[in-house]
Amino acid sequence: MESVRVNLGERSYLILINNGILDQAGEIIFSCNLGKNAAVITNTTVGPLYRAQVIKTLEQALFHVDVIEIPDGEQYKTLSWIERIHKKLLSFDLDRNSPIIALGGGVIGDMAGFAAATFMRGVPLVQVPTTLLSQIDSSIGGKTGVNLPEGKNMVGSFYQPRMVLIDPSVLATLDMRELRSGMAEVIKYGIIRDQQLFSFLQRNMDEALHLDESVLSSIIKTCCTIKAAITSLDERENGLRAILNFGHTFGHAVETLTNYTEYKHGEAVSIGMAAAARVSAEWGYCSQEDCTEVVSLLEAAGLPIHPPALSGGDYLDAMQKDKKRVRGNIRMVLMRRIGEVFVEEVSSEKILSTLKKGLLADKK
Ligand SMILES: NC(=O)c1ccc[n+]([C@@H]2O[C@H](COP(=O)([O-])OP(=O)(O)OC[C@H]3O[C@@H](n4cnc5c(N)ncnc54)[C@H](O)[C@@H]3O)[C@@H](O)[C@H]2O)c1
What we know:
By secondary structure, the protein is α/β, with parallel strands linked by helices. Helices cover 46% and strands 19% of the residues.
């Protein structure tokens, strides 16, 4: 079993990674000394696949288990569904030490996390992420929350889990497009922090996408280690954690301009990372070779690298509405080389003139 520690003083916790860990979840959670009544929150896709396995292991460890299954989809990540979850939790025999177990992808993790953070002013949370994205990103670091009609993740809180249990074998049932989408965030870690991970991905992308056990476990552990380190240094995104937004400013603009229907989040981030690499080269911050390597790896993962053909003005408007705007400038994460990025506030004029010069096309 692999383990990674997130160091946050008294809120520190372990991320445990192992094929088949789902079957051991009961005894592991039991060892955390929590209440004996547990609530599993999942959705109508993941529930039928893994609910029985999780209930069985929890019951073997003598937990009484109740399950809440919500419909599958980002559109249910709302305050009204949190209220429904709270009311359901209230109908169970829980106390302030009863664990809530989030079994699902990032949507379930964010919602169950927010429900746990707010139910009875906070009950223990265990993350059991089941998508690649949630295993390497959203289940770690404590960001929880829901969307408002006005914007994504607008209501939430920082609330760290007691433990994260990662079973890479559950990725076997994940849709290939979701797997590739998660791979975009894996590639991001290589670009922002770990040149070795980036080269490993260049050599092993096919194996990873075919779920080779040792390749995948190694990738997941490396990504968790990076996310844990960044979270430990900057829990509340006051500084360093912002580098995790590499590709996200432009990626969010792509998502907004296509009404969140055309691209998965990771696909939009892939387009955003290709764009960030291109502007980094264009503005002389990184070499053209590094930019080409980034774009090629995204392509090798089967991810999109060209933004939809909309006007520079539309993109600029969408980027200006982003949460990451500072004093009228747009905060962008740019690349110095593969493995090293930095944050810069860029003026709207500079961005618009670059967009007009043809950010959308690759340099031949
Ligand atoms: N909290 C954070 O730090 C953070 C970071 C990044 C993203 N997020 C959030 O995460 C969400 C996206 O997460 P996601 O990409 O995991 O999407 P998701 O949770 O919607 O899961 C994608 C799809 O895969 C299904 N699924 C999950 N696990 C499966 C499995 N093992 N087998 C078969 N199907 C499975 C889900 O039911 C869903 O249909 C967004 O809401 C985003 O805002 C949060």
